[in-house]
Write a structure and sequence with these properties.
This protein is mainly α and 99 residues long. It is built from six helices and no strands. α2 (13-28) runs antiparallel to α3 (31-52) and α2 runs antiparallel to α5.
């Protein structure tokens, strides 16, 4: 697999599951919180977009400025899909538990 094939073909099933899980949060949230969950879900989708474009710098920068809880969930999802080493080398985060 070439580098470009990796970025375009890597399975991101845990990331996709995370994105889908926010549908339920949005559906059940009060009007005050609904927009926050919509924004978090949009951040996840933007991260996937950067990933598919093989733009690791934009991906890393984008993740860095996300809210803490969604950022941590996304980092763990990437680690589950691509491995802890990839997350550490590419995104600069160390995942120590449960993956």
């Amino acid at each position: 697999m070439t580098t470009q094939e990796f970025w375009t073909n890597a399975k991101l099933s845990h990331v996709e599951t995370l994105i889908k899980s926010y549908d339920g949060y949005i559906e059940r949230a009060s009007e005050n919180l609904k927009e926050l969950y919509v924004d978090d879900q949009a951040d996840f989708r933007k991260a996937v977009e950067y990933f598919r474009k093989a733009d690791d710098m934009a991906l890393s920068d984008h993740i860095q400025y996300m809210d803490t809880d969604p950022r941590e969930n996304l980092i763990v999802a990437f680690a589950e899909d691509l491995g802890k080493q990839w997350v550490e080398l590419t995104l600069g985060y160390s995942v120590t538990n449960g993956v």
